[in-house]
Amino acid sequence: MLKTFQYQAPFITEGGDTLEGLTVAYRTYGQLNASADNVVWVCHALTGSADVDRWWAGLFGKGRLLDPERQFIVCANMLGSCYGSTNPLSPNPSTGIPYYYDFPVLTNRDIMRGFELLRRHLGIRRIRCLIGGSMGGQQALEWLIEVPHLFDSAYLIACNARHSAWGIAFNEAQRMAIESDSSWGQRTPDAGLKGMEAARACAMLSYRHYQTYALTQSEAEEYSPTGNFRAASYQRHQGKKLRERFHAFSYWWLSKAMDSHDVGRGRGGVEAALERIRAQVLVLGISTDILFPLAEQQLLAKYIPHAHLRILHSVYGHDAFLIETDAVERFYFDCFAQTESCLFPVS
Ligand SMILES: CC(=O)SCCNC(=O)CCNC(=O)[C@H](O)C(C)(C)COP(=O)(O)OP(=O)(O)OC[C@H]1O[C@@H](n2cnc3c(N)ncnc32)[C@H](O)[C@@H]1OP(=O)(O)O
Ligand SMILES: N[C@@H](CCO)C(=O)O
């Protein structure tokens, strides 16, 4: 069941804006044990939600990496997202109508502070393992740096210390697609949806890889050179699929939060920031990830004091972390099985 936490004090963003009545939606699975040392916190990616059992179903269940019979699992919807937390379509308490374009630009650090407020509200004092992939991994990093002694271990997948010029360029191209929709600018919840379809199709090129498309979307031997190509119909399907479950406001604002990502900001640079981390950290990179290339995970592993780097060889590109769940789990157990940080001992 989705629960909500409402923060009573004004929330001041990194950009100096104030949000009143901040809401963080979250789900918990399993029970906190007597020694309160079985908390696993999961940070979701761009269009995920607090329903980690749905979007990471392959990792979830008895005997799996995320096992509610052994762990107390928390997953919160990131601020700005449209799955229950405060976002641009939430009513502005001072007017009673949605913020729309007046919503402040949030940073990954703001989003992490939303998690931290929820953590205190829930009375959680230790986190056994913090797990995040992609944008969720970026937020997990922010948290590991900001509150280093809170965490025993972390699993950071396909993420980076600072969003790259390449990543920002991909996001800007997507925002341009949304902004070119003639309905963008209207104060209605469905503004920009057509543009968001194109934005998602553009994003797919960064979430997958040449090899993924070659493997799954190549034409059969006999095909019409002037007809509809499989890859073209796939792109359109992905756009429509997102349109049915997301809105352009969250998409636009979350892409800005991703652009803001730089763990070194105000902390003396990336290297100094990463060196503050105290947890045992497994960093996983994906061989075909063109959005968060391996060099970015190598940099994390170089400067995080207790880091282990592993590489998942996959044809699925960046999104392999959502698709190749057996491999994601295996890397975790191979790395942590014999350590105290392991989520459960392997006999
Ligand atoms: C409410 C919540 O809990 S949020 C949950 C949803 N959000 C998330 O899961 C966020 C993270 N998840 C994702 O990004 C994605 O779901 C992933 C990466 C895990 C998997 O992506 P998918 O789109 O499911 O996989 P894939 O790339 O193989 O595409 C399969 C889809 O494309 C369709 N497809 C494949 N080839 C073609 C084609 N040539 N033409 C048209 N459609 C095609 C398939 O029929 C399938 O459609 P369906 O999902 O509507 O059944
Ligand atoms: N496919 C992911 C984004 C990339 O991690 C999502 O839709 O959340």
UniProtKB/TrEMBL annotation:
Q: So which domain of life are we looking at?
A: Bacteria
Provide the catalytic activity annotation. Answer: L-homoserine + acetyl-CoA = O-acetyl-L-homoserine + CoA
What positions does the domain AB hydrolase-1 occupy?
39-322
- Pathway in which this enzyme or protein is active: Amino-acid biosynthesis; L-methionine biosynthesis via de novo pathway; O-acetyl-L-homoserine from L-homoserine: step 1/1
Gene Ontology annotations of biological process type: homoserine metabolic process; methionine biosynthetic process
Q: Which UniProt keywords apply?
A: Acyltransferase, Amino-acid biosynthesis, Cytoplasm, Methionine biosynthesis, Transferase
- Name the active site residues: S134 (nucleophile), D289, H318
Subcellular locations according to the entry: Cytoplasm
- Binding of substrate occurs at R200, D319
A single Pfam family it belongs to is Abhydrolase_1
**GO CC, one annotated term:** cytoplasm
Q: What is its EC number?
A: 2.3.1.31
Q: What class of enzyme is it?
A: transferase
InterPro entries, per database record: AB_hydrolase_1 (IPR000073), AB_hydrolase_fold (IPR029058), HAT_MetX-like (IPR008220)
Task: Tell me where the signal peptide lies.
Answer: none
Gene Ontology MF terms: homoserine O-acetyltransferase activity
Which PANTHER family does the protein's record reference?
Answer: HOMOSERINE O-ACETYLTRANSFERASE (PTHR32268:SF11)
Record's family? Belongs to the AB hydrolase superfamily. MetX family.
Q: What does this protein do?
A: Transfers an acetyl group from acetyl-CoA to L-homoserine, forming acetyl-L-homoserine.
What NCBIfam families does this protein's entry cite? homoserO_Ac_trn
How would you summarize the oligomeric state and partners of this protein?
A: Homodimer.
This protein is called: Homoserine O-acetyltransferase
Source organism of the structure: Thermonema lapsum
The coding gene here is: metXA
